[in-house]
Amino acid sequence: EVQLVESGGGLVQPGGSLRLSCAASGFTFSSYWMSWVRQAPGKGLEWVANIKQDGSEKYYVDSVKGRFTISRDNAKNSLYLQMNSLRAEDTAVYYCASPGSSRGYWGQGTLVTVSS
Amino acid sequence: SYELTQPPSVSVSPGQTARITCSGDALPKQYAYWYQQKPGQAPVLVIYKDSERPSGIPERFSGSSSGTTVTLTISGVQAEDEADYYCQSADSSGTSVVFGGGTKLTVL
Fold this sequence. Notes:
heterodimer; B: three-stranded antiparallel beta sheet; 9 strands
């Protein structure tokens, strides 16, 4: 059974940091581009960042460039998102996913709330 | 930045056909994917590579492409199909992922 399990979300003050993790199982994680996708309350899906299979290429949406860093550890079948200088507008459910693949794997998401 | 445009809402009666469009300049070059999302749940892939249907997705879901527009068609809509639907593709370079704004399908 394919599973993507996110963790690390929570309440953080503006300007703070969080590190999200995603544990993958049931498929060959190292064969897929992986992404973080977020969804603000009541809003649509927004792609945040993606990373190539070997970690050699990384891309970000403009609004998080310089603040967020995506990484992966294929030996641990894990994806990460380091989020710094968090803002209220970063409040969202963050999904670990493989959009753009024929499998379309998605986790259940982890909620990040940025508030004082 | 690159955008995909979807209608905010579509309404159909049970048994009718629903069509949801998605427009974007790079769609002739990049595949489109469609996701169904029900309240409180993660998105589920219903169409990949413009028109391919994943295993387990009912045959009433189909996709097509014409120029800068792709279309998700749901034939014989059922009450359980009421959900938000998102198209997804990539920019012309293929490096950035982009989602449409989403379409709320209401089954009357």
